[in-house]
Amino acid sequence: MNLKDFFTPDQDYVLEKTNETTTEDVDEVIKREGKLSFLMSTVKMLKKYYKLVDVMMMMIKDYRKGVYTAVPWFTIAAIGGSLLYVISPFDLIPDFIPGLGYLDDITVLTIVVGWIDSDLHRYLDWKISQDHITREEIEKIEEAQ
Question: Comparing C-alpha atoms, which of 120, 25, 10, 9 is closest to residue 77?
């Protein structure tokens, strides 16, 4: 086993963390949206997920406001847990390690997106059909597609 395999989270690890995610954790991610947005837009390795994270943030905010509830808690917990993992300085591979520091973050995001892909598409279909969608939300959705 090499170091990358040892320190890179697998599906079991991500599932365990998702199952431990609480509504308070989701609220913490919403509160730290600015930091997350800055991180996603400035770290080269994470930029590929930047627009997708915008859509994930819209979904969990709509869920917490009670506007969009046609989604399983598992999806909300997976989004909240993965984004909290990304902004946390305490993860399996410390972010300050050049070239490797964000490998675990990318792995967690990739696993979660694979799990919730269909829920994200359903959310986007719903969001686009709403009368109260803002111009900013439309732009984020268009950029994510």
Answer: 25
Query: What one-character-per-residue DSSP string does 40-51 give?
Result: HHH-GGGGGGHH
C-alpha to C-alpha distance for 94 and 48, rounded to whole angstroms:
20
pLDDT tens for residues 80-121? Answer: 999 999 998 777 777 777 677 788 888 899 999 999 999 999
122-138, pLDDT tens digit by residue? 999 999 898 888 888 88
- Do residues 137 and 58 lie in contact, with contact meaning Cβ atoms separated by under 8 Å? yes
Total length of the chain: 145
Cβ 25 vs Cβ 84: under 8 Å: yes
Average pLDDT score, the chain: 86
Write down the pLDDT at residue 8: 56
In the numeric block, which tokens belong to residue 138? 């439309």
Of the candidates 139, 126, 37, 42, the one whose C-alpha atom is nearest the C-alpha of residue 87 is 37
Task: Give CA–CA dist 66/75, Å, rounded.
Answer: 15
